[in-house]
Amino acid sequence: MRKPFVAAALCGLFLASTAQAAEPPAILVSIKPLHGLVASVMKGVAEPGLIVSGTASPHGYAFKPSDARALEKARLVIWVGKDFETWLERPVGRASENLAMEDIAGMIRLPTREGGAWEAHDHGHEHEDHHDHADHDEIDGHLWLDPDNAGRLVDAVAARLAAIDPDRAGTYAANAAATRRRLAEVDGQLAAQLAPLAGRPYVVFHDAHQYFEKRYGLTPAGAVTVDPERPPGARRMAILRDRLKAAGASCVFREPRFAGPTVTALAEAAGARIAQLDPEGALVDPGPDAYFVLVKGIAAALVDCLSAH
Questions:
Q1: How far is it, in rounded angstroms, from Cα 58 to Cα 255?
Q2: What is the C-alpha to C-alpha distance for residues 2 and 170, in angstroms, rounded to an integer?
Q3: What are the start-end ranges of the H helices in 126-233?
Q4: Strand-pair partners of 79
Q5: Per-residue confidence at 133, pLDDT binned at 50, 70, 90?
Q6: Domain of 78: which CATH number?
Q7: Of 32, 88, 230, 253, which sits with the fewest C-beta atoms within 10 Å of its C-beta?
């Protein structure tokens, strides 16, 4: 009688442990570009949740009750950090664990550009080339647009997932390595594709592309606004119009969510072409390919507009 009992008990323990191993941790990610990288690391395991979905803007996002419920259920929340998602800074404190991209060791962090063509605040002078770590307490939060930073996030996510889900550590590590290889390949492609654009000035709608521009040696002439939720005034439009003409900028880039008429008016006044950039993935479908679709789309838009005659 004892052997059948022991066998049944062992079988029960095996089934219980198998069921436990089969349940992946619930992971929640703030925005699409990060979600794409996390989904790539979790490929074949589970799809992470996403807070800012569809064409919603991560700037001034209104945190909803459904987001709060998802956050409370999540084992890990992955976000850019307080310098970008100020609306998430308080809620994320209720999460079991969180990983802020801006706090990862080795992350390239650039200060927000200020003055003149870059910042809506009027300091009476320009700092367009202010790319280094000067004394500045605001970090440009668009960290993901440098593939090196994307790779650091991938490694950190894989390590954190392995710690909370050791049964799948091998899968996370293999996926992270594959994602890293893919990032290196795309980085090389973009560098070759964008090299001919060096020295060709342009204006963007809001200053979201600093990491991408620095990585690939691009020459932006300014941004319409620092805050995409706040339209620029007449004085700023006049400054940018003059800046476009003086720099010989041939393109003004709008964004999917914002200020089409504003960009159109500026471009017409300066005799520039209009195109579109999507730095935060408003038009990108979430999933493991999202990050690569996003950066390739930015490069293609720049090439198409700045190479036109």
A1: 13
A2: 38
A3: 147-164, 169-194, 210-216
A4: 100
A5: very low
A6: 3.40.50.1980
A7: 230
